[in-house]
Amino acid sequence: QVQLVESGGGLVQPGGSLRLSCAASGIIFSSNAMGWYRQAPGKQRELVARISSGCSTNYAHSVKGRFTISRDNAKNTMYLQMNSLKPEDTAAYYCNTDPPWPRLRDVYWGQGTQVTVSS
Q1: What is the reported pLDDT for 8?
Q2: What b/e sequence results for 30-47 when a residue is b if at least 16 CB atoms lie within 10 Å of its CB, and e otherwise?
Q3: Residue 61, Cβ neighbours under 10 Å: how many?
Q4: What is the pLDDT of residue 29?
Q5: Cα separation of 54 and 73, whole Å?
Q6: What is the pLDDT of residue 19?
Q7: How confident is the model at residue 101, as a pLDDT?
Q8: Are 61 and 49 in contact (CB under 8 A)?
């Protein structure tokens, strides 16, 4: 069964950097487009960065130029390098396939990793 485990979140000051990791199992990782999603309190979950199976990337306007998504298919791992972090980047960050991995009645989500940007 699919398992996506996010790590690397934490508390960082504005302007700082973090690198998130996503370890995937139970899927043919190299064949799937993958994405980083985030959900801030009171807001809907949003896709902030996407990487295709062929490593083409797309970014939400709000993070373009600051975040970099990458993948290592040999390690079944995806990364999100986040630079120049802003308080509005504060959210729980999740990795998933794009579109999100379907289950019988809903969509799979892992536990996520919290990113807090605050002075």
Answers
A1: 98
A2: eebebbbbbeeeeeebeb
A3: 7
A4: 93
A5: 10
A6: 98
A7: 93
A8: no
